[in-house]
Amino acid sequence: MKDRIFHLMTAEGLTPIQLADKLDVQRSGISHLLAGRNKPGFDFIEKVLRAFPELNPRWFILGEGEPYEQSSTPQPAATQAELPYDLPYTAPAPEVEKKQAAPALPTQAPQATSVAPVAIEQIVNFYADGTFRRYVSQ
């Protein structure tokens, strides 16, 4: 299936990002499909077939027949022999955000303040499942 997705992108002149935007799916999802990490689900296949009505569903799902319906759109110029199926897809490197410089720290050490010791009365731990445990000083 990943080869057919790659073929579709090449024939339509789309990058993985453009395909994701056209199908309204997450960009990482396309990357995972092309890398072979994930397999497409029904929703993805349905979105592809709706976005590309000239695509032959039997070819896209089963790999049988021609990629495009003969009656609607002619076969794209790229033939199967010209497509680099043996090359693994590598996703483009993510853009690195430029970090702003942190504000300068004061050069003087903070002054120690004397605080009277305070006794702990209780400690409460809250857990992800909504429960909690209370520890009370005796």
Distance between the termini: 66 Å
Mean pLDDT: 79
Query: What are the low-pLDDT stretches, counting only 5+ consecutive residues below 50?
Result: 77-81
Strand content: 5-15%
Number of helices: 5
Major β-sheet annotation: 2 strands, antiparallel
Q: Tell me the strand order in the biggest sheet.
A: 1-2
Helical percentage? 25-40%
C-alpha-based Rg, rounded: 28 Å
Structural class: mainly alpha
Number of strands: 2
What is the general shape? elongated
Order of SSEs: HHHHHEE
Oligomer: single chain
Descriptive report:
With 138 residues, the chain is mainly α. Helices cover 32% and strands 7% of the residues. The protein has five helices and two strands. Strands 1-2 form a two-stranded antiparallel sheet. Strand 1 and strand 2 (132-136) form a beta hairpin. Helix 2 packs across helix 3. The protein is elongated and about 85 Å long. It starts with a helix and ends with a strand.
What distinguishing features does this structure have?
single chain, 138 residues, mainly alpha, two-stranded antiparallel sheet, 5 helices
Secondary-structure blueprint:
Elements lengths: L1 H11 L3 H8 L3 H9 L6 H10 L5 H6 L59 E5 L5 E5 L2
Antiparallel strand pairs: 1-2
Helix pairs in contact: 2-3
Summarize the structure.
The protein is mainly α. It contains 5 helices and 2 strands, in the order αααααββ. Helix 2 (16-23) packs across helix 3.
